[in-house]
Amino acid sequence: MQLRNEVKALLADPMFSGLEVEPVLVEGEPAAEIATAVRDYDIDLVTVVTHGRRGLARALFGSTAEEIIAEAPCPVLTIRPPQHDFVEHHGGSTEIRLHRILLATNFRPSSIAATSAAREMADAYGADLHGAYVIGDYFEQISTMFPDGGTSALKRMRNEVNQRMQTFAGEGDGRVKTHVAEGRPYAEIVRLAAEIDADLIVIGRTVHASLFGGAPALGSEIERVVRNAPCPVLCVPAGRVVTPLPSFARTQPVPQPQM
């Protein structure tokens, strides 16, 4: 009863004025129940608030937000206050303003849906789209261990990535900028997002089976991007593209509470 009263009080906030809101209260594991609700209600976008966690507790138990990202069959937008975001407040209204979108890609099938979503949002809001590819630092390690074959493989990799990024940029009508970096993928993505003052990071979501046979888990690099990003992160599952993303397509200002 107390929880229902809290939800009722929350929905009475003027911020929800003019919106059709359907509260749903369920019991169970958050990630699994949210994934079920996404399917039952044909949800296009899930938003979650997360925060960085360190130490043994993070390693053993993971985070609810990351479990939601792994299980949700639709894109998940993660927000980790306080961080730069793309929501601007003007007087009594709120507007979404996307100026720079950073797409982290690896040209694998898992990044196709994320690429489409990033392009659609950039077109809809007139934002600059930055495409980033990070050559993992393990290539450098291989070239060190096996100088003959490793060095040539790394050179071929660099050439191939640069060619594909040039093609990607050429498809963007001059509004696409590309970046090729080498190192730890999550660290380079986070660094670049801060460097270009990105409003949003878009990344394709990949999951793998849990080591202990439990729920699916995110790849470690995606987890680290979510936990360390200086701006919100949109994780897009492979095989589903939402165009446009409903929560980003608002044309009317959202009323704000009167102080």
Structural features, described:
By secondary structure, this protein is an alpha/beta fold. The chain is built from nine helices and twelve strands. A seven-stranded mixed beta sheet has the order 1-2-11-8-5-6-7, sandwiched between helices. A three-stranded antiparallel beta sheet has the order 3-4-12, with no helix packed on it. The chain has one domain (2-129, 186-255): Rossmann fold, CATH 3.40.50.12370. The chain has helices at residues 2-11, 30-40, 55-61, 64-71, 112-125, 138-145, 147-170, 185-195, 220-228; strands at 46-49, 76-79, 87-90, 93-96, 100-104, 128-136, 176-183, 200-205, 207-208, 217-218, 233-237, 254-255. Helix 2 (30-40) runs parallel beside helix 4, helix 6 runs antiparallel to helix 7 (147-170) and helix 8 packs parallel to helix 9 (220-228).
Question: Could you give the topology of this structure?
Answer:
Layout: H1 2-11, H2 30-40, E1 46-49, H3 55-61, H4 64-71, E2 76-79, E3 87-90, E4 93-96, E5 100-104, H5 112-125, E6 128-136, H6 138-145, H7 147-170, E7 176-183, H8 185-195, E8 200-205, E9 207-208, E10 217-218, H9 220-228, E11 233-237, E12 254-255
Parallel strand pairs: 1-2, 5-6, 5-8, 6-7, 8-11
Antiparallel strand pairs: 2-11, 3-4, 4-12, 9-10
Helix pairs in contact: 2-4, 6-7, 8-9
Q: Helix and strand string, N-terminal first?
A: HHEHHEEEEHEHHEHEEEHEE
CATH topology: the name is Rossmann fold
Number of discrete helical segments: 9
Q: Find the structural class using helix and strand composition.
A: alpha/beta
The gist of it:
The chain has 259 residues and is an alpha/beta fold. The protein contains nine helices and twelve strands. A seven-stranded mixed beta sheet has the order 1-2-11-8-5-6-7, sandwiched between helices. Strands 3-4-12 form a three-stranded antiparallel beta sheet, with no helix packed on it. It has a two-stranded antiparallel ribbon with strand order 9-10.
